[in-house]
Amino acid sequence: MNRKTTYLDYAAATPLDQDVLAAMKPYWMDQFYNPSASYLSAKAVSKDLEKARARIAYWLGARPSEIIFTAGGTEANNLAIAGIMENYPEANLVISAIEHDSILKPAKRYDNRVVAVQPDGRIDFTSLARAIDDKTVLVSIMYANNEIGTIEPLRRIAKVLEEIKKDRQKRGIKLPLYFHTDAAQAGNYLDLHVSRLGVDMMTLNGGKIYGPKQSGALFVKAGVSLMPLIVGGGQENGRRSGTENVMGIIGLSVALNKAQTIRPEESWRTQELRDEFIALLSEKFPGTIINGSLKWRLPNNVHVTFAEQDNEQLMMRLDEAGIQCAVGSACSASSEKPSHVLSAVGLSEEAARSSLRFTFGRNTTVSDIQNLTRELAKLIS
User: Which of 273, 281, 308 has its CA nearest to residue 375?
Assistant: First the structure.
């Protein structure tokens, strides 16, 4: 028997949009050609690929030549980190304490410094200033956190880095200082214009914006030299070899175009759902704590600690009731350690193990929120 489910884990994955699916379909069979081939049919596919690149570049305020297609956000993040650091083996990089593992783990291969965050998840600028020295070549700070939804002040960070670069120039230090941001969670709700944000590199992930999984892109500002991770046929101007995933690229471009087109109205709609849910939580469960910034927060994210509740048990019981969400602690099966994000914002291990993440999306309704609140009341009481 099929049961009705309420999906509230859009930060983890989004369903493929119907318009995206329709745009991808021709490239599965009819337009299957390798875009590097020389005959007319392949050249037509190559033109479609470049149109997709231009469409993505438009929303970033970038040149099409500054877009590198990858197999998702993880590869894009690895390329941003390793691509810079392999060119500057004597340099170091700076990352925040709440980055995704696809930043944290490649960063560990190099001389790295970790910047603390405030209790609301926003970057600590005193810690940032201490971390950067004359050998720092790369700073990577995510745009919006995947667990607690906090939005980072990228433009303010960029201004700090600009001042450091000016000081270096005066002192004759020629080492560049690049700024990368993982914007995987930002595509549906935030402005992606790279010049306004002041970033040199930006990661995009199709699976988070109603596009296909394993589709992604890395914006790399002109003049930034990257050492490629994957070499071979020289595709993507030699920065990422391999026959292009045309279906995924087309899907990514259509998904980003739709997400950014409807962004104002969808941001407002999901923010109303978020705020109503937070109000209901305050009314029904006075002891709950909302984690992350209340002001600088993704409009679809509610990360909440239910005191003295076991989040794994609560998540499973919600799942049995047809409601799908995520545990806030993100424990791994091997180490069973609480999420590094929750630790970084000051949650105790006990509080981390009592936290759940609810993330809303295009299919979420007011009745879903009300039903969720009712089920929580049953389970917690």
Answer: 281
Q: Where are the domains of the chain?
A: 6-15+263-380, 18-261
Do 281 and 288 contact (CB within 8 A), yes or no?
yes
Give the tens place of pLDDT for each residue, 256-270.
Answer: 999 999 999 999 999
> CB count, 10 Å around CB of 61?
15
Q: Given this model, what pLDDT does residue 328 score?
A: 54
Does the pLDDT of residue 271 top 90, yes or no? Answer: yes
Q: Mean pLDDT, to the nearest integer, of 103-119?
A: 98
Average pLDDT value for residue range 158-182: 97
Is 210 exposed, middle or buried (CB count within 10 Å of its CB: 0-12, 13-18, 19+)? buried
User: 114, 229, 280, 331: which one is catalytic?
Assistant: 331
Per-state percent for the chain, helix, strand, coil, to nearest 5? 40, 15, 45
Query: According to CATH, what is the number of the domain 6-15+263-380?
Result: 3.90.1150.10
* Three-class secondary structure of residue 305 per DSSP: strand
Which residue stretches of the chain are H helix?
A: 18-24, 40-60, 73-85, 101-107, 125-131, 154-170, 194-197, 246-261, 263-284, 311-320, 340-344, 349-352, 366-380
Q: What are the tens digits of pLDDT across the range 279-329?
A: 999 999 998 999 999 999 999 999 999 999 999 999 999 999 999 999 953
State in words which class domain 18-261 has. alpha beta
| 3-class state of residue 228 by DSSP | coil
Phi, psi for residue 298 in degrees, rounded to 5 = -60, 140
Q: Give pLDDT, residue 3.
A: 66
Is residue 325 annotated as part of the catalytic site, yes or no? no
Of the candidates 71, 5, 125, 12, the residue with the CA atom closest to the CA atom of residue 247: 71
Q: To the nearest 10°, report the CA torsion of 267, 272, 273, 275.
A: 120
